[in-house]
Structures are given as structure tokens and as C-alpha cells.
Specification:
Number of helices: 7
Bound molecules: adenosine-3',5'-cyclic-monophosphate
Strand order of the largest sheet: 2-3-1-4
Number of strands: 4
Distance between the termini: 14 Å
Strand content: 15-25%
């Protein structure tokens, strides 16, 4: 079993479609082992996305991620990291496969409704950024 980290981003929470996204997660066989709703500060978003700090979109991304609440989750499944990225679809919804979360719900490449860890080392940073071991059940 593998664990990955997931976010339902502000654009999706604002449109009241987090339930639809959580349904897709459960239907795909993930176990939700941690979940909470939080409102990130700008500096908390910057710390989370520090690997992108040199990118031109970094400031806009952190402003977006801190403008309203998000739902953060830890998902468990065999090959969870790859499976969650497949279910989300491509970062840019214009390139996402039909049936994926980003194809169905994302507004654009930045407001793309969901986030997922891209590798085991990333999950190992992202999960404890938001959850203590006692919160994962
Ligand atoms: P995410 O999977 O959370 O990882 C980094 C985020 O940066 C990405 O989803 C998008 O929200 C955003 N992003 C990536 N590329 C671009 C881009 N070219 N322009 C604007 N935002 C981007």
C-alpha cells in the first residue's frame, strides 16, 4: 500500500464541487486516511510550493491557493501516487483525458481543481506538512 497527498483547490471548494471530487476518489478505490478543510496563509502556500519558487507563476499560484479554503487529504491505495495523478489528469485541463477530474472540473492550468504528489519523496514532504501521524487512520 502506498500513500499520497491530495488537495481540492480553492476553485473547486468555492464552486461546491468537492463532494463530486471525493466521490470520484472513493469510486476509484482510494481509502481516505486523512482529510481536513483549512485556509492556507500566503506564506504557508509558499512553503508548500517552494520547489516552484523560481517559476514565473509562483506568486500567482500562492495567491490563488491562499484566497479561500482548501481540502487536504491523504489517500491510500496500491500505487496511490500514480493512480491519483491518473485520476486527476494533465495539469493543463486542455490536455486532460475525458473522465479525469481536471477535464471535468478545472478552469485553467492554474485553477486546476486538484493537486497530487508527483513522487514518493514529494509525498514524504507534503503529507507531514499538513498531517501528524495520529491524524492518519
Ligand atoms: P499542481 O499539481 O498543484 O502543481 C503546481 C501548480 O502550479 C499546478 O498544479 C498548477 O496549479 C500551477 N501551474 C503549473 N504550471 C503552470 C503554468 N504554466 N501557469 C500557471 N500555473 C501553473
Amino acid at each position: 500500500m502506498e500513500r499520497t497527498f491530495a488537495i481540492i483547490k480553492p476553485d473547486a471548494v468555492e464552486r461546491n464541487i468537492s463532494g463530486k471530487i471525493i466521490s470520484k476518489i472513493e469510486e476509484a478505490g482510494f481509502k481516505i486516511v486523512g482529510m481536513k478543510k483549512i485556509h492556507l496563509s500566503k506564506s504557508q502556500a509558499e512553503g508548500f510550493y517552494y520547489v516552484h519558487k523560481e517559476r514565473p507563476f509562483f506568486n500567482d499560484l500562492c495567491t490563488f491557493m491562499s484566497r479561500s479554503p482548501v481540502i487536504v487529504m491523504v489517500l491510500e491505495k496500491e500505487n496511490a501516487i500514480a493512480a491519483w495523478r491518473t485520476l486527476m489528469g494533465a495539469t493543463n485541463p486542455a490536455n486532460a483525458e475525458p473522465g479525469t477530474i481536471r477535464k471535468e472540473f478545472a478552469k485553467n492550468i492554474e485553477e486546476n481543481s486538484s493537486h497530487g504528489s508527483d513522487a514518493p519523496e514529494t509525498a514524504a514532504f507534503e503529507i507531514p506538512y499538513f498531517f501528524s501521524a495520529l491524524e492518519l487512520v
